[in-house]
Design goal:
Length: about 750
């Protein structure tokens, strides 16, 4: 027989191996799962033993020339449905359809197959037919349509194979059993199971206990199907061989008996006592309660005495934003996880499944490898780490230092020496000023020398963002690359920041939606601080880091202006100004941006600083259209538009040409006594004179350029804009005619 075992994306290789272990032949990885050949014993064995497959079907027929629903009916009428079905049995039909022009509605395809089955049975049983039962059918048929190719299947296993039968209650954070098994298969811990010496395993965020229970089943060689042997659909089929089935069961039980002799040590921890109670009950129903220890523990508060000795394994599925609420606490949790792993789990192997890849950057560990797995529609990353021991870390440090010493012992080229001297001169002037102002991220170089055209920013005294300005087409690319490397060499020598933390990007003129596109996919974020607040920055994945350092004084001003005010941030980017407004005591904030990427970043920045709730709003929208469609007014507005934008939602925007229209639209939302901070980085910007006839406008550009940017007074332009106050003229005669109220003071 030909079988099809369904599997989630990126898991069919595991299912293929499970099929081979069951005795299958001609195993083939195909779209959506694995196809293989085998006898009935192979099918029984696979259904019992598979930990990752979701369905098990047996192929009945195939037709590669179906071009219409009538063709489907005619082909289906040729299949001997009476072999598996008679009028005493109920049935149902399921269907999957892909790239099929003639079948627009999959339900209609299922109906046509049902009609063919019923009509065929009427012919064979003198007018009698089977009934359809959607809830508990005796037989389930499956129709798979891909273009003009159609395959009919019989559902051999029945209900989804991931439902082992031990889980009845949940904690709200659901990890399916088959996904948990896939995580375990991908982990380093599984290698110890293969060697018949399963290592100690801990899940510190066990929830309902799925990962520890699946690990216990795997470690004891307990086939998942043994938990409920009566649940399989094939038990109702005429092809079922009870004697053969008993032999396969005996074989599985024998393996289980031997497996339970292993020294299995598995722990599940969670800070929710209800979750621990549920997990313990699930382990009891799965028959592995003696191999799993569930305890109430808060992972963030563990001490050394809580950790079992030895180099072992952590495999876990901690909370993430999509699964649980509370983004700020979730980020903090991942930061705490990294600290705990690096201090208490030295020498351990750690595997973390996360549905939000960016959260993994907060763990502060570099994964050895990663796997992509799907939890339903959610694309998850499974990251595997080795936590270095103190000895390993010291050896790595020594190797790195030796490498650095060798590199730094090499003399600089004349060009690099020149760049080094300029950087040292700049640093001697800028660093004391920044230290006095409490600024930890600032610019130290901005194309000071034409030969080395780049901007160099220091972040937190730990990282360098070196953004090279794209050289003209007339410059030889090889020469430009040499100069860039010379500048990197000079930067490392001058700042003392290791080359590994000097992030180099090339700035170029942005067109269309380029400014919103990713430049990379590391997902690595760092934390920087400004004015007592924290912000996420990314040095590799995007054109900009997530914060414009030249706007530091502007953000500080917004923080002062916002107390007790309604704040609007147009073109909000990553929301750094919104965070400052919230910190300054704004009663409400509204942030608008066309990019969902940056808007999500803004939300994370707000959450990280503890600003959540009903008074903070975020809108994904084109700002110009949003201003037209809304009517709310605000006391403080920050508008920092792009120099150029070509949004899909409207016509092209050019700040030099279109800023009057934008300002008029924004000022309609400004309260009578409010103020708008308008800023632009367009170096040739010139404010339309007519705007000054309509509004009170103050050019505050010099006040908003920090000491680290004083070399470039055109880094941005900044204006305060208010509504003009109405002046009422009272004629002199009327003033003189008004009575004067005299105030008489009484003597003490």
């Amino acid at each position: 027989m030909i079988f099809f075992a369904a599997a989630a994306a990126n898991q069919n290789d595991i299912v293929a191996q499970e099929a081979k272990n069951a005795g299958a032949e001609n195993v083939r990885l195909i779209n959506g799962g694995v196809e293989f050949e085998g006898e009935l014993d192979c099918a029984y064995r696979f259904c019992l033993q598979t930990r990752v497959a979701t369905r098990m079907l047996v192929a009945l027929a195939h037709d590669e020339e179906v071009y219409h629903a009538d063709d489907l009916y005619d082909s289906a009428m040729q299949i001997p449905w009476e072999t598996w079905l008679d009028p005493t049995k109920t049935f149902t039909v399921t269907i999957t359809a892909m790239h099929c022009e003639w079948l627009k509605n999959s339900t209609f395809g299922a109906i046509r197959l049902k009609d063919a089955i019923v009509d065929r049975l009427r012919e064979r049983f003198e007018g009698e037919r089977s009934s359809v039962d959607f809830e508990n059918p005796d037989v389930t048929f499956h129709l798979h349509v891909e273009g003009n190719h159609v395959t009919w299947y019989l559902d051999f296993a029945g209900r989804s194979l991931h439902k082992r039968g031990y889980r009845e209650s949940d904690t709200g954070a659901i990890l399916k059993e088959n996904l948990a098994a896939a995580v375990l298969y991908r982990s380093d811990w599984y290698k110890t199971v293969v060697d018949n010496e399963p290592g100690l395993m801990i899940d510190p965020f066990c929830g309902a206990g799925t990962l520890p229970i699946e690990a216990a089943l795997m470690a004891t060689d307990t086939a998942p199907g043994l938990i409920d042997t009566g649940r399989f659909a094939f038990l109702k089929l005429d092809m079922h061989d009870p004697d053969l089935w008993e032999e396969i069961l005996d074989e599985a039980y024998a393996r289980q008996v031997e497996g339970r002799k292993r020294n299995v040590r598995i722990y599940g921890w969670d800070n929710d006592p209800l979750a621990i109670t549920i997990a313990q009950e699930h382990a009891r129903k799965a028959g592995v309660e003696e191999f799993v220890t569930f305890e109430k523990k808060d992972f963030t508060k563990l001490t050394a005495k809580d950790i079992p000795q030895g180099c072992n394994y952590v495999i876990t599925d901690p909370p993430y934003g999509v699964r649980m609420e509370g983004g700020a606490s979730t980020q903090g949790l991942y930061i705490a996880m990294g600290k705990q792993f690096n201090s208490l789990f030295l020498g351990w192997r750690v595997s973390i499944l996360c549905g939000d890849k960016e959260l993994l950057s907060f763990v502060d560990m570099k994964p050895d490898r990663t796997n992509s797995l799907y939890n339903g529609p959610l694309d998850c990353q499974l990251a595997h780490y080795h936590v270095f021991t103190a000895e390993e870390r010291q050896a790595m440090i020594e190797r790195s230092l030796e490498k650095k010493r060798n590199r730094l012992s090499e003399p600089l080229t004349p060009g690099a020496e020149m760049a080094f001297n300029r950087l040292k001169k700049n640093l001697s002037k800028i660093q004391p000023l920044m230290a006095k102002q409490g600024v930890t991220s600032y610019r130290v170089y901005d194309a000071d020398m034409p030969e080395y055209s780049a901007a160099i920013d220091i972040y937190e005294g730990k990282f360098i963002s070196l953004q090279e300005y794209a050289p003209p087409a007339t410059i030889d690319p090889d020469a430009a690359e040499i100069r860039l490397q010379e500048l990197v060499d000079a930067t490392e020598r001058a700042t003392g920041i290791d080359r590994d933390f000097i992030f180099v990007k090339q700035r170029r003129e942005q067109k269309g939606t380029d400014q919103y596109e990713k430049q990379g996919a590391t997902g690595k974020f760092y934390i920087m601080r400004e004015n007592g607040l924290m912000f996420m920055v990314n040095f590799q994945d995007y054109l900009d880091t997530g914060i414009f350092l030249d706007h530091r004084p502007v953000r500080a001003m917004i923080k002062e202006l916002a107390q007790g005010k309604r704040f609007l941030n147009l073109f909000c980017y990553t929301g750094t100004a919104t965070v400052h407004a919230a910190a300054g005591g704004a009663v409400s904030t509204v942030s608008v941006d066309a990019s969902s990427t940056y808007l999500d970043w803004a939300i994370r920045n707000m959450q990280m600083n503890g600003f959540e709730g009903m008074n903070h709003f975020f809108y994904k929208s084109d700002c110009i259209e949003w201003l037209k469609e809304t009517r709310d007014t605000y006391d403080v507005i920050f508008c920092d538009p792009p120099t150029f934008s070509n949004s899909k939602m409207r016509s092209m925007f050019d700040v030099d040409r279109d800023h009057p229209r934008l300002i008029h639209s924004a000022m309609r939302h400004l309260s009578t006594e409010g103020v708008m901070v308008f800023s632009t980085n367009f170096r040739k910007f010139s404010l339309d004179p007519e705007l000054e006839e309509v509004y009170d406008i103050e050019n505050i550009t010099p006040k908003t350029i920090g000491d680290d940017f004083e070399r470039d007074q055109k880094i941005h332009y900044c204006f305060l804009m208010r509504h003009k106050r109405a002046v009422v003229h009272i004629p002199r005669k009327e003033i003189e005619a008004r009575p004067v109220k005299r105030v008489v003071r009484k003597k003490d």
